[in-house]
Amino acid sequence: MAVHKKEINSVFIILTVYLHLTSGEFSYPDVFDDPERDTLISGQFPDGFAWGSATSAYQVEGGWNEDGKGESIWDTFSHEGRIYNNQTGDVACDSYHKYTEDVQLVKAIGLTHYRFSISWPRILPQGTLAGGINQAGLDYYTDLIDELIANDIEPVVTLYHWDLPQVLQDDYGGWENDTLADLFNDYANLCFAEYASKVNIWITFNEPYVVTWLGYGIGVFAPGIVSPGYAPYRAAHTIIKAHAKAYNTYKNNYFSQYGGKVSITLSTDFGQPKDPENEEDIGAAVRYMQFTAGWFAHPILKNGDYPDVMKWQVGNKSQEQGLPESRLPEFTEEEKQYIKGTGDFFGLNSYTTTVCKHKVTSGDPNYEGDQDVERNQPENWPTSASEWLRPVPWGLRGLLNWVKNEYDDIDIYITENGVSTPDEFNLEDDARVTFYQAYLNEALKAQMYDGVNLVGYFAWSLMDNFEWTSGYSQRFGLHYVDFEDPDRRRTQKKSAEWLTGIVAYNGFSSAQHLQATPLVICLSALIYKLFL
Ligand code: GAL
User: Fold this and answer.
1) Distance (Å) of CA 94 to CA 57, 60, 219
2) 210: Cβ below 6 Å to ligand 1?
3) Span from the CA of 383 to the centroid of ligand 1 (angstroms)
4) Could you tell me the domains of the chain?
5) Catalytic residues, which ones?
6) With 90 as the cut, is the pLDDT of residue 356 above it?
């Protein structure tokens, strides 16, 4: 019996390596062994580069039950005491009342774009059109969008940043239910009808991997479902269809008039093979990225279907587990046709890198087990206030190259990138300056040296905010927010001042190479603007 298992394992390894070798996979650039790897360079991003910062509704708005807003799954989750220190997003940064101030913060940095999300239950309190539209909710976003435009800032709208109307969780079981694809499409259509004349860049979903794995796999995020082998695949299946429906709704009804772009934002760490010379570890890293970003990007940007390696892995594990069929659902031919090609750019959120080692896994059905990857982050990598986030700037360059290679030179917006610092009053956030400097410089290298079509960069986040289950204990902001103050006073941090210089120059001048002070950077940017 033991021998039999061993044989299965060897066949499995050979097949995995074969799949890796035959799918024209990414080759890991030698540049990462280069002693010059971390040297900063000077140079500029292309003209028209989008400079933005990002937030999301639940994390900043507050006003959780004001003016007719319905409850979301994050209202419920936080009220159940599932967050650090029993904190909630009830008030958060109070952006529901302070959006004009937020717009001024964006403007002061010179950013050209602002990415925010619409709260579905704020405009459809019952989740559906039949349940009634909340005019006050619609007005809030009209006001925010108008305020941005009046200040020459382009709005970038995310339709779903995790705050599902609670009623859709209660009545339908959330994203595991196919009906949600149609309900999301109705909601998206309402947003397009209201705002498409003013908004040109739309993101349907933020990080569906996090929604499905953390929300439905291990249950540490709302709605808190623990079903590691099944629910994430079912929820993802609905989300992909919902995305495709909304994309097609825009293209069929709004595109000819407004010409906007619609896509999805996906998150993944860069998967670095533990031994970059070892084919098995390379295969493991590739599988990791296919199971995170590829899970969604392959159907949406390639052929309407899941990556082959994912179909093979989940199918094979399901068989080993004695199940009658794969736990990975299948799309019909008709579905594949309407899913394929429904993305106008790659929205990429990335913060860190993970080291991947090939490891055959057995046991109960589990999305992570399905990957046969053992992951870790070396202890000697730098740390941040978030346990999962170790700054690894070169990984961003690797990831951008992977996306370029995998998705045919597609335009990429980095829709989120940033770092957390501890919950203390500190405006001299040098760790954040160092992080942005190194990461942005790697983005510049990817664009200048590797030909990656990077068209925009959004810093996460405009201000400290509700960091999901960590509450207010981790601060990601370019602005400090005083959460003890009923007025939620915002104060600019050094990182915001530093970014102002980078944005003004549209890249790194030679002064910005060095750990120059924000003053020197701003002066050189000013000189550049005035005389060049
Ligand atoms: C992303 C998420 C953001 C923010 C950030 C920092 O995954 O989209 O909402 O929380 O991580 O953890």
Assistant:
1) 10, 6, 27
2) yes
3) 17
4) 24-516 (3.20.20.80)
5) 207, 416
6) yes
Report the range of poorest mean pLDDT among 29-33, 132-136, 223-227, 258-262.
29-33
Upper half-sphere CA count for residue 356 (Cβ side, 13 Å): 29
Look at residues 83, 217, 212 and name the one whose alpha carbon lies nearest to residue 160: 212
Paired residues of 492 in beta bridges: 479
Q: Is 99 a pocket residue for ligand 1 (Cβ < 6 Å)?
A: no
Q: Which of 468, 469, 473, 474 to mutate to test the pocket of ligand 1 (most atoms within 8 A of CB)?
A: 468
The answer to whether the bond into 223 is cis (omega within 30° of 0) is: yes
d(CA 409, CA 454): 9
Span 369-400, pLDDT tens digits: 999 999 999 999 999 999 999 999 999 999 99
Task: Check if 416 has its Cβ closer than 6 Å to any atom of ligand 1.
Answer: yes
Residues 6+ apart with CB under 8 A from 335: 241, 244, 304
DSSP string, 376-390: E--TTS---SSTT--
Q: Whose CA is nearest to atom 12 of ligand 1?
A: 467
Dmax (CA) for the chain in angstroms is 77
Q: How far apart are CA 375 and CA 281, in angstroms?
A: 11
pLDDT of residue 137: 99
Structure tokens at 377: 């982050």
SS3 label, residue 18:
helix
pLDDT of residue 76: 99
